[in-house]
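Propose amino acids for all 380 sites.
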């Protein structure tokens, strides 16, 4: 096995790291305090081609692989968890379903502007009464002539306030067993009947844009259905598998930031006449953090590699998302502990890492759901 990054992957890592250090990290505290989406940062990211890393050049992308994309998510998330979340959602949830399942016409119309970073797209799956139980979707789409009429509500949708389109799931009929058929539809956000409210007050990842979407008699052309009308649910399970790789990469970035802050503080902070990094109790915390972060990163790379080579990766993406997100939360918590009273203060930033990490144990399937996915993959 070769664990070295390729020349291209190393170049992406260095470029994104430099960009994040210069453009994102200096404003991360401000973005968190103001709960502000850094639109200007995303325009620059689009200009660098970061929003199109995993898509072919023919669709405006960079032609990179999933490993390269995961590296970019980690570096951006290391600078700001909220910005990293919006970046991951823009690519994995906004653009990827169109790339995976869209017609050539849909890719030309919708994917190219996304890959070029000219706009964003959102993914509308979660509802007030349908989260992990996506089969309980209550949004409905009824075919009337050559149009679908969509009614329903979506909640906690990342980037919706800055997106030109949102792909929504809706019940479009019943199968021969009487179960709901869930289809996916590309809905331009300026369509009459679409209302987007971005009023959530969040605990963490406050630099990401999070909105509720109300759909009232929203009419979209029949050709806006995405992929197989009968397989919308399976399509989004595949999309979520890929999205979990990006959330895991984001978690590694947040954890790495927490670790680096804690290590630097431990070397500077003196108690009893010496740096606290000399104390075994602190050394053990740092050693555990470093070990878990490296293991999580390797799991992210493995899941990404499997996806790139068209091998099954459902189990491995769940492994990565579960372990990395819980690693990030532990790292944030330990970083606060190492900082002591200083860690409780916002200016030291480690408390933000903990708040950001918590969402990663919930979004894209909770830790409990990941364990269910893994158990099913094991044949339980």
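Proposal:
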């Amino acid at each position: 096995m070769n664990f070295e990054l390729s020349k291209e992957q190393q170049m992406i890592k260095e470029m994104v790291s430099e960009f994040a250090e210069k453009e994102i990290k200096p404003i991360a505290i401000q973005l968190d305090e103001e709960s502000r989406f850094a639109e200007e940062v995303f325009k620059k990211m689009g200009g660098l081609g970061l929003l199109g890393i995993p898509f072919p050049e023919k669709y405006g992308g960079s032609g990179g692989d999933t490993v390269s994309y995961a590296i970019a998510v980690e570096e951006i998330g290391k600078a700001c968890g909220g910005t990293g979340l919006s970046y991951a959602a823009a690519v994995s949830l906004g653009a990827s379903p169109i790339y995976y399942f869209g017609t050539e016409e849909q890719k030309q119309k919708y994917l190219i502007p996304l890959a070029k970073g000219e706009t964003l797209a959102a993914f509308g799956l979660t509802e007030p009464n349908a989260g992990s139980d996506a089969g309980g979707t209550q949004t409905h789409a009824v075919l009337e002539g050559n149009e679908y009429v969509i009614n329903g509500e979506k909640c906690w949708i990342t980037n919706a306030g800055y997106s030109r389109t949102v792909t929504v799931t809706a019940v479009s009929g019943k199968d021969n067993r009487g179960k709901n058929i869930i289809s996916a539809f590309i809905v331009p956000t300026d369509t009459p009947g679409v209302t987007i409210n971005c009023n959530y007050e969040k605990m963490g990842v406050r630099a990401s844009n999070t909105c509720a979407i109300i759909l009232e008699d929203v009419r979209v052309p029949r050709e806006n259905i995405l992929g197989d009308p009968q397989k919308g649910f399976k399509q989004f399970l595949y999309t979520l598998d890929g999205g979990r790789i990006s959330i895991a990469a984001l978690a590694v970035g947040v954890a790495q930031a927490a670790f680096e802050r804690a290590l630097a503080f431990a070397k500077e902070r003196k108690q009893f006449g010496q740096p606290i990094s000399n104390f075994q109790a602190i050394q053990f915390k740092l050693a555990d953090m470093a070990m878990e972060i490296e293991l999580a990163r390797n799991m992210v790379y493995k899941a990404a590699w499997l996806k790139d080579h068209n091998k099954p990766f459902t189990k491995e993406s769940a492994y990565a998302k579960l372990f990395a997100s819980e690693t990030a939360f532990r790292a944030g918590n330990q970083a606060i502990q190492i900082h002591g009273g200083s860690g409780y203060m916002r200016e030291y930033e480690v408390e933000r890492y903990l708040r950001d990490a918590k969402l990663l144990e919930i979004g894209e399937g909770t830790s409990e759901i990941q364990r269910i996915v893994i158990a099913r993959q094991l044949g339980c």
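The radius of gyration is 21 Å. The chain has eleven helices and nine strands.
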